[in-house]
Write a structure and sequence with these properties.
Radius of gyration: 16 Å
Protein name: YvrJ-like protein
Pfam families: YvrJ
Order of helices and strands: HH
InterPro entries: YvrJ
Distance between the termini: 44 Å
Number of strands: 0
Strand content: under 5%
Organism: Ureibacillus chungkukjangi
Shape: rod-shaped
Largest sheet: none
Structural class: mainly alpha
Oligomer: single chain
Helix content: over 70%
């Protein structure tokens, strides 16, 4: 938790939120990609 507070203080709240959301979206996109590749190979 302390590292989140330090990040917010150093680079700002909007940037931290953007990185967090991009990280969450990335994992979902990887799952979608895997599913599409699996469907394509069948």
């Amino acid at each position: 938790m302390e590292e989140w507070v330090r990040l917010i203080q150093e680079i700002g709240f909007p940037i931290v939120v953007s990185f967090y959301l991009l990280n969450r979206i990335e994992t979902k996109l990887e799952a979608i990609h895997t599913a599409l590749v699996t469907i394509n190979h069948q």
